[in-house]
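Hey, resending since the last one bounced:
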Amino acid sequence: MFARLSTVVVASSLALLAVATGSTGSSQCNTGSAYCCDSVQSATSSQVTTLAALLGIVLGDITGQVGLTCSPLTIIGTGSGADCNQEPVCCTNDQFNGLINLGCSPLNLNL
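The structure tokens again:
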């Protein structure tokens, strides 16, 4: 009985880890990549629109959040890189090596 219970616990743990790492292997992002950003703002904020204009980025119909000064987060379970003291987000588009990331949504690292 104990052997069956331990098998179920191990299988469940592996399944939860697979869900937490997502299909891209980057934290909990099912689309895009996981980043740690200094700030996350609306795509219509003056700081974002000014920076985008200076860099020649056309925001167009983007209505979501935009991450500023972002660095990639590594895969959960590797022992390093999963710490983020600013804003952990999942973003669909990285511009200028993380200076501005488009299509971001909050990422919960406490799972």
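Strands lie at 33-42, 65-72, 87-95, 100-106.

Sorry for the duplicate.
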